[in-house]
Amino acid sequence: xxxxxxxxxxxxxxxxxxxxxxxxxxxxxxxxxxxxxxxxxxxxxxxxxxxxxxxxxxxxxxxxxxxxxxxxxxxxxxxxxxxxxxxxxxxxxxxxxxxxxxxxxxxxxxxxxxxxxxxxxxxxxxxxxxxxxxxxxxxxxxxxxxxxxxxxxxxxxxxxxxxxxxxxxxxxxxxxxxxxxxxxxxxxxxxxxxxxxxxxxxxxxxxxxxxxxxxxxxxx
Length: 220
Hints:
By secondary structure, the protein is mainly β. The protein is built from no helices and 21 strands. Strands 1-2-3-4 form a four-stranded antiparallel sheet, with no helix packed on it. A four-stranded antiparallel sheet has the order 9-10-12-13, with no helix packed on it.
């Protein structure tokens, strides 16, 4: 999982299964307090800052619903996800976030599930239209985007959906269907970069309007 900016960031968890957490100060990485629950495939990207972050779900070594909050000193366990899953995406802030997609216990596809975080607990909200795992997301609890991913069978998808605080609406697809991307920005100015299409990709795409997506760089 990761959180923050170019000059102040946090990295936590990962594969092989680890509890390690490191903080970035624009010059170097420093090891700080570990997660309580070692895991990878967790939702943690696009939530919070280097001093306040959220880690949800993941594989530990079984699929988990555990949620932890970072206060710049230590991790504290909070209310679990309603549906245990890994390979999900999350977006928002430490007190207001969305978790969507993923793979449930015993590999059960729970990729249509979405939950809203209020700072202490998760509440199930409207399902996404296309079930998938290893997708990416960015935005807020009232204006978000999810895109790409793998539906459990078949090719990687390019499908993009927009969240308005109540429901999901399909909008323009990515140019390149893929999974395991990085993401950032908002519902009107976002980025999707890197990922896996059957081979590793360096493609970067820019989302520049609620209904338009264009590729800005694809040099590799």
